[in-house]
Write a structure and sequence with these properties.
heterodimer; A: mainly alpha; MetI-like fold; B: alpha/beta; Rossmann fold; 6-stranded mixed β-sheet; 4-stranded antiparallel β-sheet; 10 helices; 12 strands; 24% strand
Amino acid sequence: MNWDWGVVSDFMPLFWDGVIVTVQALVFGSLIAFALGLVWAIAQRSERKLVRWPVTVLTEFIRNTPLLVQLFFLFYVVPEWGPSMSPLMTGIIGLGLHYSTYTAEVYRAGIDGVPEGQWEAATALSLPKVRTWTAVILPQAIRRVIPALGNYVVAMLKDSPMIAVIGAYEMLGEASAFSNATFTIEAYTVVGIAFILIAYPASLLLRVLERRLVK
Amino acid sequence: MSSETPNQEENESTGASLAKDVAGGAKSAPEDSAGAANPKVDGRELIRFDRVTKRFGDNVVLDDLEFRVDSGKHVTLIGPSGSGKTTILRLLMTLLKPDEGTITVGGEYLTHEEKNGKLVPAGEKHIREVRKNIGMVFQQFNLFPNMKVLRNITEAPVNVLGLSKEEADTRARDLLELVGLTEHMDKYPSQLSGGQQQRVAIARALAMRPQVLLLDEVTSALDPELVAGVLDVLRDIAHTTDITMLCVTHEMSFARDISDDVLMFNEGKVIESGSPDKMFNDPDHPRTREFLGAVL
């Protein structure tokens, strides 16, 4: 195999463009997944069937269909009758929505893990519902599940190349375009190394977090 | 008092007088604590169970139960486990709903409200209003582990009663002095002993200035050497305030000390009631005699 450092340096400007897209997709996708997942988890504990039921159907549907199909759907089908969005925006929403159904399960486990006595104490003090959630239940539940949420950020990072199929050129998309145009292979290697340089320290960090937060 | 904190002795001397100020009016002057939001007339019926039945599946825990508690009285519920004592407290705290019958607190239905002359299950708002008059201390303390001691106590006064942060802080500090834990207010519950946690839980309940304090086996989860400290605090409160107490306990000497009335439960019914003197020394019902013979 002929390794050409010249090719690598030619690729670097595109690589950095790709990194920026990957990071944007990851950061905003995670924020959506964290926020929406919490909404799903709380809605599924609602006393009202009319709230619980549609949310269950929606999250089961999203969790059990491929991310790739969802990305195509968001990019090609939704604009037919809804808003049309840039590839990156679509990718962010697709990743966020998909992973929100997983974070919802994580939150659910965290919420279930808060002892019944905490709800009872909140009732005994007549704390309003919103206050019970925000001041008592969620701080205890979320603390416990931060490492599990982090695992899904790493998983999302590894799924992020999928958004290239709708034209959001993140690291791998850039590498693929570059390599096809120049008939080289070095760019793929650079991206592979970049993934491990991000993902491995991230999972180490998560392990530290887990040790400190989950007691 | 227990020996778990160094300031216990100091607390012993000031506890009684403090309890008067912080736990809602002294016995000698009940009118001090009377107000529009918290009507309180000594000797008047405060709690009434009217034909209350509670089942768990096929198991009838409370069977057509009738009883009443007058304002300011300290009532102890005794009886074998499974006889429905704790269920009564949990019904009053609205942690459970009765299957049949009604419960009234201060003349207001707890789980029902009157609409167009009909009795219907109460809405959340109504329950919240009536429930504000009731406080509860749990067997497992149930302090909020994510909040420091002071905030555990101020959380509800600020967010439920609408007190300012400063007012709530002052109230909490007074209560912490009453329970002898002033120097622990910036700690998290996990840094305290079980006895200390339970005393914080008592302070947290009292911070709402409830008319009724429910005590659900509050010393059962404690190491034996920590029990006395908690009971001493409760004795202070019982002897120096006019708060109504409903107490489920296995501490018979404590029950004898603080109770005006003792109710003996068996199989979901009150089978005998009377003064502690009568109940502990000369009970009429053979089941009471048998039970007390086993626990005393």
